[in-house]
Amino acid sequence: MPPTNPLLQRWQLPAWSDVKAEHLAPAIYAIVADNQRIIAEVIATQTYHPNWDDLVVAIAEADARLAETMGIIEVLSTVKTTDIDWIEQSALCSITAARYRVQKAANLELYHTYQRLQQSPIADSFDDFRKASLAKTLRAFRRSGIELPAEQRQRLTAINLDIELQEQLFLINLERSNAAWSKQIDQAATLEGLSAAFKDRLALNARRTGKSGWLLTLDRNTYEYFMKNARDRSLREEYFRAYCTRASDQGPQAFQFDNGPVLQKLLGLRHEKARLLGFESFAHLRLSNHMANSPAQVEHFLKQQIEQNRAALDQDMQALQAFAATQGFAELQAWDFEFFAEQLRQLRSASTLKGLREYFPLDETLHRFCQFNEYLFGIKLVEQQDLSHWHEDVRLLEVSEYDQVMGYIYVDPFHREDAPDFALTNTVRNRRINAEGRPALPIAILHCNFPSATSEHPCLLSHKDLRVLFHEFGHCLQQVLTRSPHHNLSGISQLGRDTGEFAGQLFEQLSLSEELLQWLSVHYKTRAPLSRTRLTSALAAIATHTSRDTATLLLEALFDLELHRSEENGRNAQQCFETVLHQIPQLQLPAYCRFANSFDYLVTGYEASVYAYKWSGVLASEAFKRFERDGVFNAQTGRKLREAFFSGDSISLLAALEIFVGQPVQTDLAAQPD
Questions:
Q1: Where is each Peptidase M3A/M3B catalytic domain found (predicted)?
Q2: What angle do CA 643, 616, 460 make, to 5 degrees?
Q3: In terms of CATH architecture, what is 6-105+107-143?
Q4: Over the stretch 212-241, which tens digit does the pLDDT of each residue have?
């Protein structure tokens, strides 16, 4: 171990560039050992007369130190996807941290100490935040089976550790499967329909691996663009088969990295865990701390959404089939839909949408969007020049209010081969106040996947890119502006998924605001804004032919729910998927597709919660009605939004929504099945 480990030093902002693979495991081992010592000391000194600082704050500080260090590792893991040593070390750290958390959750003496504090006279004087934090801690213990008989507690501990191992194995198999397949292309004619910039990326892929021509890989962005634009139907079919059979018993890598048995074991463990804790299924357990009341309510909501989308989906599919027929294709296959949908969109909307991205260069758009949020929330967002980073493209925004720093947002905007091929928000630190009254400032990381600048133009954002930027920025602002002083209340990671997705969905609504988009727009050459007439037409075009995307999201959500609701006579994941697919027959897929085997939402914190995207989207639409009424440039509305929604996990989302809109909210979410 090197003499100085940056992960073991005190920091205000992480020393990203100093962290190496050899630092990871020693740091986590040391922190876990220190935390175990702290827990033992707390139990020894706080058993009979516990107090807030020496029990709750002491344990919270220990928990936060481990969470923040793992947060750094997880952020760097998203940009070190080709570093085998790093991947192995970070996986070891994840397992070590999980083992510690499982053992802590099973510590009966610690649980009783918290109980005594809650039952003590001093607890009556706690403010609402303290009461909520303490109650949440005790609920977490009970959800971990702390009140079970000893033998069952031991079994539950073993299950939780095995679940962590299976989740890691699922991701490792998927990563290896993605890396194992590629397709070299030597004939330029094969790439007809693809843009010059995209072909340059494929050529760079080939050169990096010592090959000539162009190289297709299984990253999602490459796949999605290719399937929309490539005219070579046979190559689309080959690519489709490779992509939809990843980590499975089918396709070009059949049985090499098969996640089928992994997923089956994982589901069995989750259901066993739920039954030990007194729940009917894992979905019932998962939803016990979500806004949704039951799996039946979520199922009713999703099926209602499917029915509401059905007419538009039928209409869009009929139009697609008719258009394909004019191109000589009487019957569409799964690898045709995205291509012909894009061709039809271009035919109908090309003149409206062409050049739209030229009005949204990244630098100006991000700068002006920061100005908008400054006005809306009464804050300052200032880019910092002196920073440690993991890549030279990374930017750092300092968030402040009344000259008081509130937190930090890192922005990693561009696509890179060793970075995620999707957008996401990571959190490194939640806001908290320590025993000395000093704040630890929250940190959020915004990863996007935008195209880099070229020699001809800067990075230019499509409307889809704007949606992504706004969505993730909403998550980041919620992370840094949350007011709670307690680690277990103040962070988006502390919220149920159906609540945690709300801010992102609400900010995504801003991408449909003509008022805001016109204000943001500036042509990268002429500096002219986008005309209101053209913007109106563009947004109308963007809103059409979205039914298939909606249906896909609903399919994923219903499948995830069904998978975690029952085992039903040993039915495996593929059989479950086929059952759900019958409910949306317009989404045709070949029998060899193995969607579940690469559906990483099942192992990354969204299990039995994928519905959250649609659920929170409905609530976000309700909240956005106030912006539609008052205008998006309304500081009073912005401050009201901040007061209502950025209070951490201390009030329910529905209560916050009613505070914001000023009246009871009537939505389909409250509806129960007959």
A1: 226-667
A2: 90
A3: Up-down Bundle (1.20)
A4: 999 999 988 899 999 999 999 999 999 999
